[in-house]
């Protein structure tokens, strides 16, 4: 049965949900606060589609490591800024409770299964729907290690040894010649040939072009949604405020919240408490000339494991860019989370790290900086499905909390929620519907 589905949120999660629903024959109205799609967390993220590197942040060794990071200054991968906010402390308490091996393995298995399904769906959409111009490449991913003990631990923890090749320093440089300047510091790396890179913002634009061509898609741009209300167990309408200040009602059949961090306030009046924390991350985008030498900038995706910095070559027929992303700040202070402020000291530290790693790539002082707020759950897996609270509205679905893996997990999340709406899946988390063998075959 064809449905009319309203989606709140115009990032990669909302657009992937919309695309999956339109493919399934439904009509979609997407509501977003911005003029264009993908203006928040999806705008300039790391660009890596690391389907086999989706382990959650919460792990047994993280609390001790975090203490060391907190003393490391602006280059620290993680920084905590405590606030007098009960929501932050609740999230931190739940996060620390999840920092043990059993919870980590269970969460990692869910996220890995979702990621592998996402890679399959991404392939279907690219090929069958002829998505283009979003800098997609499958050149693989190389995770470099500067410490031999860390390399040994990473090698032992591989989830897909058949696709994760352990290399020594010489082999790493042979594979990616731009790492030549790091030769004295490298112990080796792990290369996954099937991982991918792409431009998330361009992917969102490509999805919307297909949606607009379908004739079953409408976007209400520059539109804010008031916190939700329900009557008789359903959400009948949304209260909207348009860019010119006009207020209007939008009738709802089925509703998906894909609004990232904004979801918390939207559903609070319904008695639904979402444990989401906006984890702030940073990126740089450096334009690369077409004749950039191979020894200057990486062609494959590179992750510096010790420094927690990722590098992705975003190359289209029109332009080539190097995306550099890193860092997690816990404790977002800005009152307007639509436009998180840039921390110039963090940006300066990121410029320095990139310059040290790839000194010939270009002038990183001219790279465009960006900051985004990644909506994260304490355990790691996203909130995907109908709300679990008693008395929840029958026509409400959630697709939020993907953290730093929104682009990686978006296609699967959209596909699963579209399948559930199409086939009236029972209430509950859709992560439980993933085939068990996807995780079991990889040793979880």
TrEMBL record:
Pinpoint the FAD dependent oxidoreductase domain residues. 5-419
PANTHER family named among the record's database cross-references = D-AMINO ACID DEHYDROGENASE, SARCOSINE DEHYDROGENASE-RELATED
Q: Does the keyword Oxidoreductase apply?
A: yes
**Region described as Disordered:** 364-390
Q: Which Pfam families match?
A: DAO
Native species: Cobetia marina (Deleya marina)
Return the protein name.
FAD-dependent oxidoreductase
Keywords, alphabetical: Oxidoreductase
> InterPro entries recorded for this chain?
FAD-dep_OxRdtase, FAD/NAD-bd_sf
Instruction: Tell me the protein family, please.
Output: Belongs to the DadA oxidoreductase family.
């Amino acid at each position: 049965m064809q449905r009319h589905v309203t989606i709140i949120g115009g990032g990669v999660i909302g657009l992937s949900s919309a695309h999956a629903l339109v493919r399934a024959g439904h009509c979609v109205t997407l509501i977003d606060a911005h003029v264009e799609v993908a203006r928040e967390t999806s705008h300039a993220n790391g660009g890596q589609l690391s389907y086999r590197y989706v382990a959650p942040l919460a792990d047994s060794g993280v609390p001790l490591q975090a203490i060391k990071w907190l003393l490391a200054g602006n280059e620290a991968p993680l920084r905590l800024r405590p606030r007098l906010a009960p929501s932050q402390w609740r999230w931190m308490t739940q996060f620390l409770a999840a920092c043990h091996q059993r919870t980590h393995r269970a969460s990692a298995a869910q996220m890995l299964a979702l990621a592998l399904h996402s890679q399959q769906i991404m392939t279907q959409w690219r090929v069958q729907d002829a998505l283009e111009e979003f800098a997609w490449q499958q050149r693989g991913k190389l995770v470099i290690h500067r410490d031999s003990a860390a390399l040994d631990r990473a090698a032992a923890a591989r989830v897909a040894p058949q696709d994760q090749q352990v290399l020594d320093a010489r082999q790493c440089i042979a594979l990616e010649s731009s790492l030549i300047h790091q030769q004295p510091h490298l112990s080796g790396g792990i290369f996954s040939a099937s991982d991918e890179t792409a431009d998330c913002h361009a992917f969102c634009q490509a999805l919307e072009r297909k949606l607009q061509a379908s004739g079953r898609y409408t976007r209400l741009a520059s539109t804010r949604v008031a916190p939700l209300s329900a009557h008789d167990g359903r959400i009948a309408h949304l209260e909207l405020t348009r860019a010119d200040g006009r207020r209007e009602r939008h009738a709802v059949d089925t509703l998906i919240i894909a609004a990232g961090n904004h979801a918390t306030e939207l559903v609070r009046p319904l008695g639904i408490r979402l444990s989401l924390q906006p984890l702030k991350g940073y990126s740089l985008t450096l334009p690369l000339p077409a004749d950039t030498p191979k020894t200057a900038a990486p062609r494959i995706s590179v992750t510096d494991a010790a420094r927690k910095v990722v590098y992705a070559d975003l190359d289209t027929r029109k332009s080539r860019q190097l995306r550099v992303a890193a860092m997690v700040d816990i404790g977002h202070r800005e009152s307007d989370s639509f436009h998180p402020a840039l921390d110039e000291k963090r940006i300066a530290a990121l410029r320095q790290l990139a310059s040290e790693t790839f000194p010939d790539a270009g002038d990183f002082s001219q790279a465009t900086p960006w900051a985004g707020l990644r909506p994260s759950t304490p355990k790691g897996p996203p909130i995907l499905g109908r709300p679990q609270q008693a008395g929840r509205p029958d026509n409400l679905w959630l697709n939020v909390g993907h953290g730093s893996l929104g682009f990686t997990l978006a296609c699967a999340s959209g596909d699963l929620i579209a399948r559930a709406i199409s086939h009236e899946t029972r209430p509950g988390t859709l992560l439980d519907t993933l085939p068990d063998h996807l995780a079991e075959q990889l040793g979880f």
